[in-house]
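Action item from last week, closing it out:
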Amino acid sequence: MKATQLLHDEGQSLWLDNITRDLLDGGTLKKYIDELSVTGLTSNPTIFDHAIKNSATYDSAIIAKLKKGISVEALFFDLAIEDLTRAADLLRPIYEKTNGIDGWVSLEVSPLLAYDTASTLAAAKELFARANRPNLFIKIPGTKEGLPAIEEAIFAGIPVNVTLLFNDDQYIAAAEAFMRGVERRIDARLKPEVGSVASIFVSRWDVAVAGKVPQALDNQLGIAVAKRTYKAYLGLLSSPRWMRAYNAGARPQRLLWASTGTKDPTASDVLYVKALAAPFTVNTMPESTLKALAEHGAIGATMPTDGGDSEEVLARFAAAKIDVQALSAQLQEEGAKSFVNSWNDLMGVIRSKSALLKRAS
């Protein structure tokens, strides 16, 4: 049995961190769903940047949209929604079978809005309405300014993938924003069942401290932070406040592991996948990691529910002069800037390709 199936059987959802029109047109995504236990997918500006830049598959659609005279940003969202609604339809049977637990796709609001609450909420409402699929998450960053937008989106009944979370404190803040939205729906006598995941970025921790700590600590920080966050997650799920919401019909917000591709060429290609195996969580992984996992025959033990050795490991990093709290804030800020850079690159790619296609037509 493939390790992908073993992981699925342990209760963890495997999502693909990629979307391209080639994946859809060539049947590859369906193959991953049928053969590698993929039950969802995520996207971001970087993924679309690479997809549009490195393929001619989008050219005819771009030409057609250019004739409408729409903006570059509007053109992108047209393309993204076309791809993601097709993917959502492929995953719809899983969404129906699991009663909305699984079978999701994700579309991100413009990262230029990461520090603009009102505009983020307006964009979330518009994109969700345009996509018109119940199994589509709108990705909203878990920045300080993003938290009110998350609460308001949940209150408005918009499923949210909270992105750019790096530690347990950031996760708890996002989870509380989600719960406030749910509780407001309960108070307003609205259906409280609104889907959500909270995405913890893992491998970027280890990239950030590479070469700054003793070699014995290499590739351990991201996993230690994840273990601590998983303990906090289980604590919230079992808290009286959350249980009261479940009793009113609310759906738990699931924890999602993001940035789980191995960056260190000397480490295992499934380092984070094996370490983060845990029921009622999601692991969204790059295509290369998914394929590597399919070749492995075992996954090992699931994550400890009590945080395991996370506090001991984090103490070693503190002794090595790594301020984990400060670094989490830095990583979130850098992540937001990175998404903006990717977005600007994406807009530039679409402009360049549009100009080229105009000249050729």
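Closing note: The beta strands are 13-16, 38-41, 105-108, 136-141, 160-165, 196-201, 254-258, 281-285.
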